[in-house]
Amino acid sequence: MTQSQNAPVCNEKINLEGDSTRSVHVGTTRNKAYGALTTPIVQTATYTFRDTAALVDFMEAKTWGDGEFREEYGRYGNPSVQAVEQKLAALDSAEDAVLYASGMNAVTSLLLTVLSSGAHVIMTDDCYRRTRQFCLTYLKRFGIETTVVPMGDYDALEAAIIPKKTRFIISESPTNPYLRVADLEHIVEIARQYRIRTLIDSTFATPVNQRPYEFGIDFVLHSATKYLSGHNDILAGVIAGRADRIKALKDARGVLGGVVDPQNAFLLERGIKTLGLRVRQQNATAQAVAEYLQSHPAIERVWYPGLASHPDHDIAARQMAGFGGVVSFEVAGDLETTSRFIDRMRIPYIAPSLGGVESLIEQPAIMSFYELSTEERLALGMKDNLVRFAIGIEDVDDILNDLEQALSFIPRQRVSVRLVEQLWEQRFRY
Ligand SMILES: *Cc1c(COP(=O)(O)O)cnc(C)c1O
What is the model's pTM? Predict the structure, then answer.
């Protein structure tokens, strides 16, 4: 962790090795005037100068001589935002971090900043739908081509490289919704050979479970909307990495404009302080849920990297400290049976998103992929009976009991694929 000269002070007497200690203390600034414990919300759009000489001093040194945070305008920086950036950099063991208005704003700002016309990008499949959409449609308009390769196929990844044109490899880990885990060492090894930059969307892992920067990944991205803020009440995004690269992104943010509001920075900072507690409980509950579902006769398949049956269990066990709070599974039934099961669940809300204190549940076929045909969905690997369960911090026994009662109506025999398709077609007649 490096801190810039005019970084806000943290309590240097505290050992900052543990993630919860870092979450609570790094970056958090005390208000000099009142001695308030928490970082003040500096709700201002611009900053003022005493006189022209002070302005000239600022232009020369970017400080007003007292070592304190100074900026000239809100789009270029804000102390409430900077405090969170330092916390997040420390959590990912990176040199610095840059905060954005949303996770998507972080992805798009990064790629617009580092890529030029004629560049080529490789991304792994089973990824956040809007990221893929941005690469395949928006970047394409600027003459940037994207190749999508199957997650986990490192030969395909290497074969897709166009020497001197491929600039970026983008992957999520774990992925959405199948929780595939990228072999970070392998990706870094391939990328370095061809001098390609790497981005890992680590949203599902959080820095508590996985720190891609320690494996040599160049840019680590989180939708802070999810676990980092943790309360389903704000949107934000962050990228952590090497100081000079993050500086370039901050400069670009001053042009592209995707700043996070100081009020939201405050809420995010407050949320991050309990990250370790929340995520460790979510890991434990998710593991219990995955094991319970795996042995349930009304469930066809469970996708959770903490299960030995998951294709990436070994990689996950090697590079993660915990397996995360999302469990995906296939109900032994069709689209409507699956919907009925979801409607019978009492604790989780039906909603997209994940990582907050409230459990959320969704059927991707109806939520994120609603407007696609069954064929298009299957081409993206989305089955009608797939459920994504994003576990909150409710008590594990309550969640297991809820699953038990909600699954109890499902007959134990399997429904044929043909019937599933027929029912799907009928769905839109009503
Ligand atoms: C939610 C999410 C995003 C987008 O983040 P927003 O904050 O919603 O813009 C990107 N990647 C992953 C893996 C996500 O879950």
Answer: 0.90
Looking at residue 427, what is its pLDDT? 47
- Give residue 5's pLDDT: 37
DSSP code string of 164-229: TTEEEEEEESS-TTT-----HHHHHHHHHHTT-EEEEE-TTTHHHH--GGGGT-SEEEEETTTTTT
**Domain at 19-42+78-272: CATH architecture:** 3-Layer(aba) Sandwich (3.40)
How far apart are the CA of 248 and the centre of ligand 1, in A?
A: 22
Ligand 1 pocket at CB < 6 A: 102-104, 128, 172, 176, 201, 203-204, 223, 225-226, 235, 237
Q: Whose CA is nearest to atom 1 of ligand 1?
A: 223
All CATH 3.90.1150.10 domain ranges in the chain, comma separated? 279-426
**Residues involved in catalysis:** 75, 128, 201, 226
- Protein residue with least CA distance to atom 8, ligand 1: 103
Specify the CATH class of 279-426 in words: alpha beta
pLDDT tens by residue, 64-109: 555 566 789 999 999 999 999 999 999 999 999 999 999 999 999 9
CATH 3.40.640.10 in the chain, residue ranges:
19-42+78-272
> Assign residue 375 a region: left if phi > 0, alpha if psi is -120 to 50, beta otherwise?
alpha
Q: Is the pLDDT of residue 418 over 70?
A: no
387-401 pLDDT, tens digit per residue, is 999 999 999 999 999
